[in-house]
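Issue 218. Parser rejects a valid record. Input:
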Amino acid sequence: MTRNGDFTPELDNHIGKAANAFNKLLSVMRHKSIKLPTKMAFHNTVVLLTLLYGTESWNTNVQEETQLAAFHTRCLRKVLGVTWLDHMPKEEIFERTDKTPLINTLRQKRFIWLGHMQQACLHHRLLHWEPRG
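Output the parser choked on:
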């Protein structure tokens, strides 16, 4: 994060690393004999985890979330072999790949992280509690 709270350099870094990981898997993703669930398992394990690593603690704005979601949708289109010329809506892409929009995944990760932080805070208060009187 920069001094003014901008996540753009970190966001670009994450997208670049995820794109690099996806490009290394491109031959697998385009292979006709590999079934879609296997391709999605590779995508979830390698690309999505690389993209979303550490994003639980980010305070993103709409533009940054849109940039992450656009990269994710581009990857899913390539996995399915769908181009922009096919005019397939995002909803159908998510349905075919059994995925949800990336913002939902990001929010879920944030809620889980928030729960961990609340637990840690509670443990800290219990460990350092001193009775009055």
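Fixed in the parser; the record now loads. The two ends are 46 Å apart (CA to CA).
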